[in-house]
């Protein structure tokens, strides 16, 4: 059965969003593929991050996991959109409403949900709460779904260095927070390890507590245009919905863009620019959502840190673009880098 209930809360307060810490949580169940369960139906909910569903990236990947659970596990799914200019109080209200409605699990898409999950999870001890991209908040009923973004970004750096003709590439971060710094660090390291003479231009769209850098495509477009003017011919943006603006700018300039989180070559909303999307650093947010829902349905809910890395295809580099598939030297370099990371020959930095 597929029954989506869209829940939107009205802003209560304009308190600044809390940043997540980068400390590791306790280890527990591992993510991975799972088979269909025949147990009783489950109600599950996801609360979207900034930009909401339709961002062609992070939130849409989470939705894909919920939809898969609906289709394969007979789950009734609910979605909750963020409000403009919201604070932690709005998130608390949203998660509380979803939990009271009987959803289990309730998943916060993004580190900004950490303060709210810490509060609401304590009030609903029999409900499993999932949070993506955060390990700062822990509890017996909290699953921290995290990724080695730096590893996938390293591969993007290798690809960018190989594809660049000018020797100058760009990185655009949505908001300058520790999570996005991981993307920057891996990308820059991959570029420099491949071509020590290459130049990496770096720009962040906003600084916290302003999170517009994850939500406004015009900001990404302007930043990309500036990097293109400085000679960049490959631009990698880790900026959520704002990243679509950088893809547009690169495409119109006849240069390469590298997508993030979802395989953006296959995103319908970016079809006009797909030929310019060389590749994308994918995070298996979809399976992380699906796996948590299934674990609850099976009566063995995941808790603690559930990590997805390169070795388990939790992060990867997409090869959907036929032009990418034709670049044999680039693919060979990426494949070798992937092997070296998995084998421990390359240690990827998590901070610039």
TrEMBL record:
Membrane topology: Lipid-anchor
Database matches in Pfam families: Bmp
Residue ranges annotated for the ABC transporter substrate-binding protein PnrA-like domain, each copy included: 49-336
Keywords tagged on the record: Cell membrane, Lipoprotein, Membrane, Signal
Location of this chain's protein in the cell: Cell membrane
Superkingdom of this protein's organism: Bacteria
Chief localization: membrane
UniProt-recorded name of the protein: BMP family protein
Protein source organism: Streptomyces omiyaensis
């Amino acid at each position: 059965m597929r029954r989506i209930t869209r829940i939107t809360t009205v802003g209560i307060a304009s308190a600044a969003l809390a940043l997540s810490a980068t400390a590791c949580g306790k280890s527990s169940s591992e993510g991975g593929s799972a088979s269909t369960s025949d147990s009783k139906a489950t109600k599950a909910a996801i609360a979207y991050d900034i930009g909401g569903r339709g961002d062609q990236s992070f939130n849409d990947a989470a939705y894909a996991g919920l939809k898969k659970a609906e289709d394969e596990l007979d789950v009734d799914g609910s979605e909750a959109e963020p409000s403009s200019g919201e604070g932690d109080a709005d998130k608390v209200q949203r998660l509380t409403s979803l939990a009271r409605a009987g959803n289990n699990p309730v998943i916060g898409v993004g580190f900004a949900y950490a303060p709210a999950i810490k509060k609401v999870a304590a009030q609903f001890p029999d409900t499993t709460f999932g949070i993506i991209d955060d390990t700062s908040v822990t509890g017996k009923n909290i699953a921290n779904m995290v990724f080695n973004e730096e590893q996938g970004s390293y591969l993007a750096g290798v690809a960018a260095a190989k594809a660049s003709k000018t020797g100058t590439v760009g990185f655009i971060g949505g908001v300058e927070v520790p999570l996005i710094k991981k993307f920057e660090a891996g990308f820059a390291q991959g570029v420099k390890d491949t071509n020590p003479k290459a130049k990496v231009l770096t720009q962040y769209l906003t600084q916290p507590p302003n999170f517009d850098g994850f939500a406004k495509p015009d900001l990404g477009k302007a930043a990309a245009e500036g990097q293109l003017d400085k000679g960049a011919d490959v631009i990698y943006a880790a900026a959520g919905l704002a990243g679509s603006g950088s893809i547009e700018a690169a495409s119109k300039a006849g240069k390469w863009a590298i997508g993030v989180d979802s395989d953006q070559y296959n995103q319908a909303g970016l079809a006009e620019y797909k030929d310019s999307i060389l590749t994308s650093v994918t995070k298996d947010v979809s399976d992380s959502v699906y796996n948590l829902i299934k674990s609850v349905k099976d009566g063995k809910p995941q808790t603690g840190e559930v990590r997805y890395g390169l070795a388990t295809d939790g992060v990867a580099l997409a090869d959907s673009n036929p032009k990418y598939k034709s670049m044999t030297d680039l693919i060979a370099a990426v494949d070798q880098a992937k092997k070296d990371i998995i084998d421990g020959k390359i240690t990827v930095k998590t901070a610039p």
